[in-house]
């Protein structure tokens, strides 16, 4: 039997094998995955890939860096002018700021005592005794920790002491209890304004106006709107620039991918055909080894070859094709033969002697891969081409 591969292709194949012997790590490259899996399917073992080595690298000339036209991204408020008058230094949160027991079951008596403390606290607040008012509001919260109004009012008192963070903590708790508390939104919005959190301040004050508009809330909202609007517009422009930049980068990646694909196609066209002469790469129209390996890349076939029993059986058959008779009663082996038969017959390729082909030989099996012996059914004739028993 003459070699179906041309001398030039054999030389290149030998060079490739020599490279693999000197550096087996290249078999872990994604481009050579098919060859690695083929070796493993035949029972071969590939050395573990070294952690610090990625195999030979193909040097790609770098394009000269183009000067970027994008401005350096800055913080949202770095290049806009804001009126920061009226802002204060943030207060340190008081660890002793009591929030009551959220799991407490409040009785009618507790509610009555909480109301008494609240009335006393409001009286002290109106007289300017803010710290005393906070103590009384805290006593009321201990009696009834489920009242959003008590937390909102104590937050208002903290505002009088210029403690915006303490106010925010109380008002946030109030909104957890009652998401429709206009007072909690109002005082928290004011606290955010004192801290220079213009967007948050505008958001809370707008919500307070939507729930229960009053003159003071409307005045506070008008005060924070100019700064909040500047920041909102700035962020919109920044987001638009970001999307435009991402779109340009996406188009650039696509352009480079097309160029790389075109270069790879050129190299593929320039590469010699391992199959030699003939319409399919081998003499007589038989497909080249490259086409043969492509057929074996079917995921189901490769999964079957990973089965040690299947791999050992095919290695045994490749050593002596007549050993096929030993496996005619093995549904797993015969199912794979049926699968391969369907692949070859469906592709129009001529693999002589293999079920579904014509003649008497099969690439990779010395002397050809015979049809099943007499007494065994032809898998290509009596079995469907599905993948039963391959797993």
UniProtKB/TrEMBL annotation:
Keyword Repeat assigned: yes
Start and end residues of each stretch annotated as Disordered: 50-79, 92-113, 240-283, 355-391
Keywords, in A-Z order: Repeat, TPR repeat
Composition bias type Acidic residues, residue spans: 70-79
Pfam families per UniProt: HipN, STI1-HOP_DP, TPR_8
Listed Gly residues bias regions: 355-367
InterPro entries to which the protein is assigned, alphabetical: Hip_N (IPR034649), STI1/HOP_DP (IPR041243), STI1_HS-bd (IPR006636), TPR-like_helical_dom_sf (IPR011990), TPR_rpt (IPR019734)
Gene Ontology terms: cellular component: catalytic complex; nucleus
Limits of the STI1 domain: 298-337
Any one GO molecular function term: Hsp70 protein binding
Stretches forming TPR repeats: 114-147, 148-181
CDD domains: Hip_N
Compositionally biased residues, Basic and acidic residues: 59-69, 95-106, 244-270
Assembly: Homotetramer. Interacts with Hsc70 as well as DNAJ homologs and Hsp90.
Function: One HIP oligomer binds the ATPase domains of at least two HSC70 molecules dependent on activation of the HSC70 ATPase by HSP40. Stabilizes the ADP state of HSC70 that has a high affinity for substrate protein. Through its own chaperone activity, it may contribute to the interaction of HSC70 with various target proteins.
Homology family: Belongs to the FAM10 family.
Protein name: STI1 domain-containing protein
Provenance organism: Acanthoscelides obtectus
């Amino acid at each position: 039997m003459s070699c179906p591969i041309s001398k030039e292709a054999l030389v290149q194949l030998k060079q490739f094998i020599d490279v693999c012997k000197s550096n087996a790590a290249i078999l872990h490259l994604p481009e050579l995955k098919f060859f690695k899996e083929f070796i493993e399917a035949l029972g071969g073992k590939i050395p573990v890939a070294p952690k610090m080595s990625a195999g030979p690298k193909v040097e790609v000339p770098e394009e000269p860096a183009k000067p970027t036209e994008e401005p350096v991204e800055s913080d949202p408020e770095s290049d806009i002018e804001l009126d920061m008058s009226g802002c204060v230094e943030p207060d340190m949160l008081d660890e002793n700021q009591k929030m009551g027991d959220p799991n407490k079951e409040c009785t009618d008596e507790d509610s009555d005592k909480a109301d008494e403390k609240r009335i006393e606290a409001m009286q002290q607040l109106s007289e300017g005794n803010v710290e005393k008012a906070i103590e009384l509001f805290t006593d009321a919260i201990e009696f009834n920790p489920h009242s959003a109004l008590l937390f909102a009012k104590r937050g208002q008192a903290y505002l009088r002491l210029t403690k915006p963070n303490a106010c925010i903590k109380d008002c946030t708790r109030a909104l957890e209890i009652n998401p429709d508390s206009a007072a909690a939104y109002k005082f928290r919005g004011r606290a955010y304004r004192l801290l220079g959190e213009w967007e948050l301040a505008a958001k809370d004050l707008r919500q307070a106006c939507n729930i229960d508009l009053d003159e003071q809330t409307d005045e506070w909202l008008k005060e924070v709107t100019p700064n909040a609007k500047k920041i909102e517009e700035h962020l919109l422009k920044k987001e638009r620039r970001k999307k435009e930049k991402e779109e340009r980068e996406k188009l650039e990646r696509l352009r480079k991918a097309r160029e790389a694909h075109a270069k790879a196609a050129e190299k593929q066209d320039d590469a010699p055909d391992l199959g030699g002469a003939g319409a399919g790469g081998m003499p007589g129209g038989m497909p080249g080894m490259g086409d043969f390996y492509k057929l074996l890349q079917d995921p189901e076939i490769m999964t079957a070859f990973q089965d040690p029993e299947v791999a050992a059986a095919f290695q045994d058959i490749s050593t002596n094709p007549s050993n096929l008779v030993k496996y005619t009663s093995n549904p797993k082996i015969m199912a794979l033969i049926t699968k391969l038969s369907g692949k070859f017959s469906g592709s129009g390729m001529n693999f002589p002697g293999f079920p579904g082909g014509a003649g008497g030989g099969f690439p990779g099996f010395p002397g050809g891969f015979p049809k099943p012996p007499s007494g065994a059914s032809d898998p290509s004739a009596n079995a469907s081409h599905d993948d039963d028993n391959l797993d």
